[in-house]
Amino acid sequence: MADLSEEALSEYYEIVSNMFGSEDEGFQFYNNYALEKGSSVRKSYVEWDNDNRDLLNLRKFVCSREGFRESKYMKNGNRKRKARNISRVGCRARLVVAQVKETGWWYVKDFIDEHNHPLATQELACMLRSHRRICEEQKVSIVEMEISRILKHQIMDILEMRYGGFDIVGCTDRDIYNFSYSYKRETIAAARQDKDPEFFFTYLVDADGHLNGLFWSDSQSLLDYEAFGDVVIFDSRCRTNRYNMPFVPFVGLNHYRSTVIFGCGIISHETSEAYEWMLQTFSADMAQKHPISVITDGDLAMQRAIRVVWPNSNHRLCGCEFKEDCLYGISGSCRKLECIGTPCSHIFYVLRILEVDELLKCCIPDRWTMSAKSASPPTRKNNMYDYSTSLGRYRELRNLSHATSSRASQCIESFPCFKRVLQEEASSTLSNVRNERMRYGPVLPQMVQVDSAKVLDPLHVKGQGALRKD
């Protein structure tokens, strides 16, 4: 039942008498009003100008619980994921704004403030969808903390402590996860070759121009392969992309037993020809340095490609137990140490006979020692992720304002004065800032110049029918 009290009528007339300079201004007004009431809003129906289809002349803002879920989403069928809770209950609350064509101003054409569902409390309303957002200064802090390897839930804890409560932060930990994911994806997707001179990629297309293969690596991959490329592990069991194409990572282990990536590739079909192209491309990128040993998942096409491209590399199957025969005598030197740089069982047998407890330095390859990276440049990272100038300016202003705020907060007379100065400067500065996409951490790289018009989307690859290995 509608509230017909004098206070409600006064509020109604106050709302419908508002005028807005733009559609967005009207949305912000209704969203702020919904925050006070305990509801969330979203944009709905729109009408375009008949003379100019690029201009709006009417927009409807509705409660987030307006309407009902479509029947096709109500049926479970063979659904693998659990259906979301019902959120739309046919709420009729709305605000409709229309534009006066002559003046360009927007007025309230219709307003209904009746909700058919319970409203959120003031403490929880800030967690509703339309009221959650990560402001620009929070994005800068999140990127900085991620660079320092602070975990996402710890970032949320820091923001809550900094702002004085989760309701003041204005976002949730899930929002932080989503922002970090999208930010990294944009940065990686736009990686540019001139920021990383050693960045390498190539692709293979079929007769119709569809992508059949792709390989890429960066300068860090080259440095890691130079130091730890004696053993390479790769398989093609991962098929998480939308085209079901096998993803082939080339990985190894460093002297800390941590995984390092030498390169990555995608192929359309697991054939010996496709693997030969992948291995030849990898070898060309790595200055034709072949690994001593290769560990794979046992694919027959992969084995044939290894014998063709890397005939002198030892091939082992992943998960196998490697057993060596016990030698009780020496029938001659196998020259394994001189040939491939690793000690043989004969050396260990002789050392045991001589009761030598420590391995000789000549028997220990450099890649097994803590000085494995000594031959590489001291700075192993490239300048691909140089920080933006805006981040440097932000840090300088932040440090200055923190120091001044700390001193002003300790004085009753200085606090209101400093607060007023900040508010005045903030309002004047924000009016001069252009509304454009900002970068908060690494400089946004430019896309590598590729003639993408000649490369079509790959065709979906059918699986081989083998059971997925856990």
From TrEMBL:
Residues 231-318 form the MULE transposase domain. Residues 28-120 form the FAR1 domain. InterPro entries: FAR1_DNA_bnd_dom (IPR004330), MULE_transposase_dom (IPR018289). It comes from the Eukaryota. This is Uncharacterized protein.
